[in-house]
Structure formats: structure tokens, C-alpha cells
Amino acid sequence: MQELVEITVDGKNMAVSADTTVLQALREHDIYLPALCYHPHLEAYGSCGLCLVEILNDDNWETKHACLLKVKDGLQIRTDTSELRLLRSWAAKIFLRHRPFLNHKTENFLLNLVQDEIKEKPEDENLTKCIKDLSGYMTEGCILCGLCVRMCSKIGKHHLTFLGKGKNLRISFVRGKSGETSCGNCRACCHVCPAGFITSNAEQAFSAKLY
Length: 211
Ligand code: SF4
Ligand code: FES
What we know:
Layout: E1 4-9, E2 12-17, H1 22-28, E3 52-57, E4 60-65, E5 76-78, H2 82-98, H3 104-120, H4 125-135, H5 147-154, E6 160-163, E7 170-173, H6 188-192, H7 202-210
Parallel strand pairs: 1-5
Antiparallel strand pairs: 1-2, 3-4, 3-5, 6-7
Helix pairs in contact: 2-3, 3-4
The structure holds iron/sulfur cluster and FE2/S2 (inorganic) cluster.
């Protein structure tokens, strides 16, 4: 039988599977958290910084990634505080500034997180200007969530990898012995890419667009 533990989320007690993360537990209970680098069939990676929650530890509320944090009995969680909305908005602004988007669903999703910050500070003219600037900046982009790399490895192909460091960090093909980059175009990565960067196939995305 499945072992259950009791957690408290935004003041409500709930029973969740013991062997799960906070993000999965919240999803099981239809509690929404933004999460761009998470996929239910892949190991969590913790790169997008959007799934933040606060957990109570010795009278202090600490910020943690819900996708990486395992549940435990008695865990107390907050999902919607002004501090969390601010942190999510900062993460969203970094994506929007540095990784312009082709996929308008992702772009609007991130802009909404920034709007949440603006709602709390309607008098902040800099923020309002910032969202206008961001809206005009979108073309196409990879957010380096790593979902494509993890999916490619999970299905045993290992054709994709991270390459470079810092602002030069990119997803790239792993070259074969003779330098070839052909992947067979199985499209597994297309189905998990949240940014619309890999549309029809990975070869086209990585060789024709950025590299
Ligand atoms: S190509 Fe898509 S799935 Fe791969 S890292 Fe970039 S955004 Fe993520
Ligand atoms: S879903 Fe947790 S950091 Fe991206």
C-alpha cells in the first residue's frame, strides 16, 4: 500500500504520497506552481527557478525549489507570498531579456509572472516600463532548461549535451566519431521543449538557428 505523509500547504492539511517531491504533490492536489524545466517523466533539474516555495524550518520560512524538495511528514509550505512572486518575476525577466521567445505561450506565461509583481507595485514606473520593453524584444530562444538533453538521454540516444559556460552555455549535438551530428530526428525532444525552440527537429534547431 502506498505510504502517505501529511503536509500543510498555505494553511491547509493534505495527505500526499511519501515518495514524491513537493511539486508533484501540489500537482496531485491541483495546486498550480509555475515550472518550466520540470517534466513528469524526467528527473528534476532545478534550473528555471520558477517553482519556488517557502518551507518552515525552525521558525524561519526558507525558499526552496519545489521540484527538488522531497515531502516529509509535517512539512509546512507556502506557495504564494509577495517574496515568492517577486523571485518568480525576477526569474521570468531574466528569461525574457536574455532568451527571447518564438513560442508565445511561454512568452505570455512569463510576462504574467512579471505582471504579478507589477500588481503589487502599481506605482513603480520602472517596472511598467520594463514590461513594455520586454514585450518588444521577442524573436526566438532556448531557456536552457535541459529537458531535451534529459529526454534524449532517457530514451538511450545521448545525442544532445550542454556546451560552454556562463553566457556561452548552449545545447549542442554530441559529435560522432567522424564529426557527424546526425540524430535520426525521433522528435522526442520536440515534445518536451517548453520554449518552442525545437519545432520540427533538433538538427534544424541547433544547427540552423544558433550554432
Ligand atoms: S531547446 Fe527547448 S528543451 Fe532544450 S534546453 Fe532549450 S528550451 Fe529546453
Ligand atoms: S521546475 Fe523547479 S526549477 Fe524549474
